[in-house]
Design goal:
single chain; alpha/beta; Rossmann fold; 4 domains; 8-stranded mixed beta sheet; globular
Length: 594
């Protein structure tokens, strides 16, 4: 039997609240420390405990991070999904299961490893047997695929944060799992892990924690938040970093943190703190954005800076709150009543989660408006390999006047008077000792005086449009992987970045070579228009039903380019799988090129 090295997928089926997450993260951390490219996807239910959960680990020397197209090693711990999980397996799959569950396994085409995990765990600690049994399957897997024992021990120690009793108990369970496999089975496992050279500066972190860390380095001074999956860990991350990174000589934290009574209040606090000169932020998901929309409109029209992170989950309504999607894009871009248009940052990697965490504040103050960060559950709540961050050198506070001399130098100064032609007006900050400046969310003229004059309103709205349009070349620009003389281009964004390499390889295997353009912000950059001009056919690839970016492009591209653009949009709540989207791309191209 040939051994397949560093190219396979685990699927670990357990129940939420049983402690399996610790076991799964130990496996992930061990393989990462062995230098193996690896990614983990946690598919968990929207309740506290009891319902089924799956953890998918993709091992890939090629660096593929999307969920695999098939399962090579299945771990079964949960009665609720037992029969369906077994039914879905292809012939030859390794099945590791808890034989104490006493559920049938009626497949003779699988490689079976029945392990009395509960019995082994009860022998160690009857009260904690349900949780310890997870560590038994860690030991089984470690023995079958050849995980480094020393590195595995370090991963256990890290997971349990140096707590000696917990480390000893769980390490013993792992050892017993290894010994049981070695003493009771002779068949050879066809899958193996081999150590690779590891970047000494690399580490594993989830997207929400990277955003949190970036926000702290961006100078956040006020965090308001209301808990909602999957954004809560951004706020928790900021709170955890503040004592270490944002405290004064008296060990007092220099950032205010307020858990508000609802999302409306959280957004209102951002507007208030932004008006006062603070770098203010909140984090939420789609339902929270809906509730915040009136305050977002106020900030847009009165021109108050602020940052809101939306970690997208599946809608509409409550939808699938613990699944992933890119369904909020068009809402973020135009949220609010009347004519509005917002700046949206769209990270596709862990590095960009950090970078856009701090850059959002610079852009909000430069353009004096709300800036949205747009992530999703897959990027935000799963752990990814990162090779380090680029830290900000200084803050961009935008057009802030600090003295009367600066005001006098401008001449005819008014809060909403554009003296430079870029649509951005100068502002003063409360507490500066200068003349207090009135901000208005109602109709106003250049001096912030209330006005219902139609001509004044038209001029003001035109200036706001000019200001946002001016961000098209300032916001993070698209990343192009463009090959000359290619007929087909793919435009995509966000966490699709973690699938696109494999999609490209699958398409190339079928003889179809494409260029790629990853959008990283809204409004649309002129680079995107040029990319469309350079290709006969454009596929807009996204994780939602309606093709929201496709709709934005159809509105903003020159009308003669619109027929070149085609939508491939799909969402089932799961992270994008390469083969699924590759097939949809091929089908669409056959349709439009025939």
């Amino acid at each position: 039997m040939d051994t397949i090295v560093n190219d396979f997928t685990f699927n670990i089926a357990t129940a939420n609240g049983t402690g399996s997450q610790s076991a799964n993260l130990i496996l992930l951390q061990t393989m990462f420390e062995m230098g193996v490219p690896v990614s983990g996807k946690n598919l968990f239910p929207s309740n506290i405990s009891g319902l089924p959960t799956w953890y998918i680990i993709r091992v890939s020397d090629a660096g593929y991070q999307a969920p695999g197209d098939r399962t090579h090693i299945q771990v079964l711990m949960n009665k609720a999904t037992w029969e369906k999980d077994i039914e879905s397996l292809e012939s030859g799959t390794i099945l590791i299961y808890n034989s104490d569950v006493k559920m049938p396994v009626e497949r003779d085409d699988l490689i079976l490893y029945p392990i009395p995990m509960t019995k082994i765990a009860r022998g160690l600690n009857p009260k904690l047997a349900r949780m310890i049994s997870n560590m038994v399957y860690v030991g089984v897997i470690a023995e079958l695929i050849g995980l480094d024992g020393t590195i595995l021990d370090k991963a256990v120690s890290k997971q349990f944060n140096g707590k000696e009793k917990a480390i000893e108990l769980n390490a013993t369970a792992i050892t017993l799992g290894r010994e049981y496999v070695g003493g009771n089975f002779e068949q050879m496992c066809p899958y193996a892990i081999e150590t690779r050279e590891k970047n000494p500066d690399s580490f594993i972190i989830d997207g929400n924690e990277a955003v949190a860390l970036g926000s702290v380095f961006g100078g956040i001074t006020m965090l308001s938040w209301y808990p909602i999956t999957p954004s809560t860990s951004i706020a928790e991350g900021i709170i955890s970093y503040l004592p270490r990174l944002r405290s004064d000589e008296n060990e007092q934290v220099t950032c205010a943190v307020i858990q508000s009574e609802d999302e409306l209040a959280a957004a209102g606090m951002v507007v208030g703190a932004g008006w006062a000169g603070g770098r203010a932020m909140t984090c939420t998901s789609g339902p929270g954005i809906s509730l915040m929309s009136e305050f977002v409109g106020l900030a847009y029209f009165s021109e108050v800076p602020g940052v809101i992170w939306d970690v997208n989950r599946v809608g509409p309504s409550t939808g699938l709150p613990t699944r992933t999607q890119q369904g909020d894009l068009s809402m973020l871009y135009e949220v609010g009543h009347g004519d509005t248009k917002h700046l949206v940052l769209i990270p596709g990697t862990i590095d960009e989660c950090f970078e856009f965490g701090w850059r959002a504040f610079d852009l909000a103050e430069r353009f004096q408006t709300i800036v949205f960060g747009f992530s999703d559950l897959d990027l935000g709540m799963n752990r990814w390999i990162c090779n380090g961050f680029d830290y900000p050198e200084k803050m961009d506070r935008g057009k802030v006047l600090h003295s009367q001399e600066e005001i006098d130098a401008i001449g005819n100064f008014g809060r909403y008077r554009d003296v430079d032609g870029d649509g951005i007006c100068y502002r003063t900050l409360p507490g500066s000792g200068l003349e207090p400046m009135l901000y208005r969310g109602t109709g106003h003229d250049e001096d912030a005086v209330y006005s219902e004059n139609p001509e004044v309103y038209v001029a003001n709205m035109a200036r706001l449009k000019r200001k946002i349009d001016g961000a098209r070349t300032v916001m993070p620009q698209p990343i192009l992987r463009e090959e000359p003389e290619k007929q087909v281009g793919i435009i995509y964004y966000g966490s699709m970045e973690n699938t696109i390499q494999e999609i490209d390889d699958i398409l190339e295997d079928t003889g179809l070579k494409v260029s790629q353009c990853r959008l990283r912000s809204l409004p649309i950059s002129p680079v995107v228009e040029e990319f469309v001009e350079n290709h006969e056919h454009i596929i807009v690839l996204e994780v939602n039903r309606d093709g929201q970016l496709y709709g934005i492009l159809r509105k903003e591209l020159p009308i003669e380019l619109v027929p070149r653009v085609h939508s491939v949009a799909f969402s089932d709540g799961l992270p994008p799988r390469a083969r699924k989207y590759s097939e949809m791309i091929r089908e669409k191209l056959l349709e439009v090129m025939s």
